[in-house]
Design brief:
Blueprint: H1 3-18, H2 21-39, H3 49-82, H4 84-90, H5 95-124, H6 135-156, H7 159-175, H8 188-196, H9 198-210, H10 219-241
């Protein structure tokens, strides 16, 4: 089967499997994005422009993290336990086609939530967006790193453990990761930890792309995300290629 036909077949298969649930997940992501932008602002005793900009530019990263590192790993864990992954591995097609098709579908459902969160934040708070032309390559980089890690750990780890880890990531991303607030608010030891983990760097590059006149990401953030993406997808591909 030609590679183009393989990819098209896997796309159709995954779309039919997920069906209307994709619409539900897209709506949930919109709610999460608005919860970060609007809901978290209620925690602020006064509406500070800088803090509002952190919330507004952090919401897209939260949407991608919740989709790629929480929702998709839980879906993959369920697929492993039901035998669906074994079915995919038995198909006479490249197993990398499954990764490409699935990542594309899940990345696509994050776009409405990200766009709506930016539009609503701009209408309600006018936080000072200054969107750079780098927003598209940055989105692709964050998608690659997020989904690489999500598919990697959910395929390599036992299903029950990956589901538990996904919940830890969700809680940690919202409460202990400098996505919606400056990193210098954290204890020094936790700042050091985040320098080696990907979530802080995802937020940094996304913030810079959305408000380039206010934020500036270090080049090392882009390099770290590229490395995490390669490690994640390599692990996921190795799992799928095993007989």
């Amino acid at each position: 089967m030609a590679a183009k036909n393989q990819l098209g077949t896997i796309f159709e298969l995954q779309l039919r499997k997920q069906g209307s649930y994709l619409v539900v997940f897209a709506i949930i992501m919109v709610i999460i994005a608005l919860g970060v932008v609007i809901g978290f602002s209620f925690l602020m005793p006064a509406q500070d422009d800088t803090q509002l900009l952190y919330l507004a530019t952090g919401a897209p990263t939260i949407v991608l993290v919740m989709t790629a590192l929480v929702t998709v790993p839980m879906q993959n864990a369920g697929a492993k336990m039901s035998g669906y992954i074994d079915f995919i591995k038995a198909l006479p097609s490249s197993r990398k086609s499954f990764l490409i098709a699935d990542v594309t579908i899940w990345a696509a459902i994050t776009v409405p939530a990200i766009a709506i969160s930016i539009l609503v934040a701009n209408l309600v708070f006018n936080p000072g967006y200054d969107i750079s032309w780098t927003i598209v390559p940055v989105f692709i980089l964050v998608v690659a790193s997020c989904f690489g890690i999500g598919y990697g750990y959910s395929f390599v780890m036992p299903a029950e453990l990956s589901m538990a880890l996904s919940q830890v990531i969700a809680f940690t991303a919202l409460m202990f990761t400098p996505i919606n607030f400056p990193i210098d608010r954290l204890p020094e030891w936790l700042q050091v930890v985040h320098m080696g983990l990907p979530l802080y760097h995802m937020a940094e590059v996304m913030r810079t792309a959305l408000a380039q006149s206010v934020f500036s990401a270090d080049p090392i953030s882009y390099i770290i995300l590229g490395v995490w993406a390669l490690i994640g997808f390599f692990g996921a591909a190795r799992f799928l290629e095993r007989a």
